What does this fold into?
Amino acid sequence: MLELKESFKKEVKTLKDYIILVTVGAKNYQKTAVDIVKFLVNEQNTPGVYVTLNKPYEIMQRTLASNSIDTRLIIFIDATSRADVGKVENCLYIGSPEKLSDMSVAMDQAIKSLQGDKFLILDSLNTLSIFNKPATVARFIHFLAGKMREWKIKGIIITLGRETEQALMDELTQFSDFRIDLGGE
Amino acid sequence: MVHLVVVSVTTVIFGIASLMLISRARNRLSEGSIRKYMDNFAICLAFIVIFSVWQTARSIVGVDIGIEGLGTYPEYIFIVFAYVAFIVASFRVLKISEEFGFKEDGKKIKGILKQRAKAPKKAKK
It folds into this structure.
């Protein structure tokens, strides 16, 4: 927590909008994700959108709530594989990480529904790479980075350092304002 | 008569061009609600284009446009199908708006943020 907090605070304290690429190791992946949300929601009082590709909404919501994070300030987009699609509470189930068009529309609508400062967390890029072709992921990330600039939000892209293709990582580093490495390379 | 043929042929060209554009757009999208909506929309358009093609063909061949004429019946069937497809597409849009509409969530979050902003002030008092 301390390592993340320090790196984060150092980089983003004075910034209103930014794109950060966070590379993590498998061991501290969950903790990092929770810490980032905690920092944004509890400390910066910022609402936002959490796109989860790894863990279903129920698990994510429970994990965040157990870490004293007010999940009411977060709109979840659950893109993990599941049979049913639709909206439940503050979560939209996309149904599959392959449905990138739906994911883009959902992110756009969710971000635009929020006012003032807001964040978007993509958790995680390496999962996107498992379900989609590298070229498709690269194009999606390119699109997302452009959109994050347009929306003027705090954009955070989490990825497992070791699992992400180097070319994709380089491309993303090019778009992002900062890259925070927390192990995994 | 010539004017009618020109108008009909232009309509058919526009319709086919629209179908081609939809097909290109559809190919760019991944599976999901938006693509399904595009499929519905393409079906609507296809029926209307078939309707126009049939009408143009009749104009060129010179079949009499009368409701009792057999040549007119397929036209009306296509237009009926087009409207049925429009209803399906409209329902699809309604479902998409239910899924992707976050306006209410945004309002709720705004209210929660206001409450949170007021809470420390009250505590201070």
